[in-house]
């Protein structure tokens, strides 16, 4: 197993001396992406020009990437397409899901959901203007809130702030029994832990390409639609590449076959190329082995930090089976603490109001770095390195 993770670590460019614990926000540069982008620009864009849509297969890249992602999230071929952003894909999924729910009006979510998902739901409600409402409950109250009044269950599997992990299989089963359509946000799941969309019976799923999938900043996202539903939905974003025959340039929209109808506009080929190259790091990697290692790394970090920094409060579940691939602690000056850590070459991030967040990606993080990061955190806390003006002033991105 050590040989596996030594091999994958060599696939990434991480600055010398830096301990990178923020792959749950932005994965590091894959060497393959750097090389592939240079080749794509020079040979295909530069040499083939517009011909590359055919000669280089650009037009089919979203489907090829979708199938690669599908293999990581338990989705069959032809059920995932890479496209747009997570928020745009949620809009597509939610409007499609609501078209299947008849007279039901409740969209059920939880207070641990990523705020952008809730904003999208609010926007969908205003846009449709059909009396839908968003019901938000505490994460632990979701199961009890699923009943025959609910139209759609919309959840993020791993809480972005604390790392708390929902039981997708159990919640989806209860939803299906109550006739509820399910949408899962896998932004902090895909590439972090085993996901089985088919086995769980999930209806829709979305996720981003720039976190654990290492696709680069602003990388294209993905959307999954259960195969049995694909031909039953008509996208609300009916763009030309989701058309049955886009190059006939018909004046009326006819949805394309299966998952292709979830495409909308022209795909960003250079970003798609980087994502495709970043996904190559997963070739020959068992996601179950990654999960086992992830839990061990997070458990070690919790043990080390609590021994060294007793004033920090663990915000993540202590049980590794109940959290994603991250660990979060609370501190009243969490933002400044994180800035001091970053200045000392341990990169994590901060989430308001008081969470310092550390993502553990076994593809490039090992046990030595985990202990070293805890040692630096101890120094920052005990010596109050965070207590200076440059660390207390917040930047636009936290």
Helix content range:
25-40%
How is the biggest beta sheet arranged? 7 strands, mixed
- Principal-axis shape: globular
Widest sheet, order of strands: 4-10-9-8-7-5-6
Instruction: Tell me the span between the first and last alpha carbons.
Output: 35 Å
Please tell me how large the radius of gyration is: 22 Å
What is the fold named in CATH at topology level of the largest domain? Aspartate Aminotransferase, domain 2
Helix and strand composition category: alpha/beta
* Beta strand %: 5-15%
CATH superfamily of the largest domain: Type I PLP-dependent aspartate aminotransferase-like (Major domain)
Give the domain tally: 2
CATH architecture term of the largest domain: 3-Layer(aba) Sandwich
Chart the SSEs and their pairings.
Blueprint: H1 2-9, E1 12-13, E2 19-20, E3 29-30, H2 31-48, H3 52-55, H4 61-72, E4 80-82, H5 86-98, E5 106-110, H6 115-128, E6 133-137, H7 142-145, E7 150-156, H8 168-177, E8 181-185, H9 197-200, E9 204-207, E10 222-225, H10 269-279, H11 287-308, E11 313-314, E12 326-330, H12 334-343, E13 346-347, E14 349-351, E15 355-359, H13 367-382, H14 389-392
Parallel strand pairs: 2-13, 5-6, 5-7, 7-8, 8-9
Antiparallel strand pairs: 1-3, 4-10, 9-10, 11-12, 12-15, 14-15
Helix pairs in contact: 2-10, 4-10, 5-6, 11-13
């Amino acid at each position: 197993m050590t040989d596996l993770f030594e091999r994958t670590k060599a696939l990434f460019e991480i600055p010398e001396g830096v301990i990178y614990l923020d792959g749950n926000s932005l994965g590091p540069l894959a060497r393959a992406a750097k090389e592939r982008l240079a080749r794509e620009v020079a040979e295909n864009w530069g040499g083939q020009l517009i011909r590359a849509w055919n000669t280089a297969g650009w037009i089919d890249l979203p489907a090829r990437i979708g199938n690669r992602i599908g293999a990581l999230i338990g989705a069959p071929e032809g059920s995932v397409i890479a496209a747009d952003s997570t928020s745009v894909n949620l809009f597509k999924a939610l409007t499609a899901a609501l078209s299947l729910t008849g007279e039901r009006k409740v969209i059920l979510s939880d207070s641990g959901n990523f705020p952008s998902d809730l904003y999208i739901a609010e926007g969908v409600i205003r846009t449709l203007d059909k009396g839908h409402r968003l019901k938000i409950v505490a994460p632990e109250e979701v199961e009890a809130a699923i009943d025959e009044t609910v139209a759609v269950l919309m959840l993020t599997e791993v809480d972005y702030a604390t790392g708390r992990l929902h039981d997708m299989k159990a919640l989806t089963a209860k939803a299906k029994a109550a006739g509820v359509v399910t949408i899962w946000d896998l932004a902090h799941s895909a590439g972090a832990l085993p996901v089985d969309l088919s086995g769980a019976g999930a209806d829709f799923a979305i996720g981003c390409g720039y976190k654990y999938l290492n696709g680069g900043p602003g990388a294209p996202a993905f959307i999954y639609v259960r195969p049995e539903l694909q031909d039953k939905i008509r996208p609300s974003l009916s763009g030309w590449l989701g058309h049955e025959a886009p190059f006939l340039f018909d004046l009326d929209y006819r949805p394309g076959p299966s998952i292709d109808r979830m495409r909308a506009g022209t795909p960003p080929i250079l970003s798609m190329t980087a994502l495709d190259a970043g996904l190559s790091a997963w070739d020959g990697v068992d996601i179950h082995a990654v999960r086992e290692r992830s839990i061990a790394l997070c458990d070690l970090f919790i043990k080390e930090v609590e021994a060294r920094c007793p004033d920090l409060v663990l915000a993540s579940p202590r049980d590794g089976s109940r959290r994603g691939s991250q660990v979060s602690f609370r501190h009243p000056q969490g933002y400044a603490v994180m800035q001091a850590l970053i200045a000392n070459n341990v990169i994590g991030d901060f989430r308001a109001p008081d969470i310092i967040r550390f993502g553990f990606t076994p593809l490039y993080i090992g046990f030595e770095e985990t202990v070293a990061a805890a040692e630096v955190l101890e120094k920052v806390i005990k010596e109050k390195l965070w207590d200076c003006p440059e660390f207390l002033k917040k930047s636009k991105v936290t």
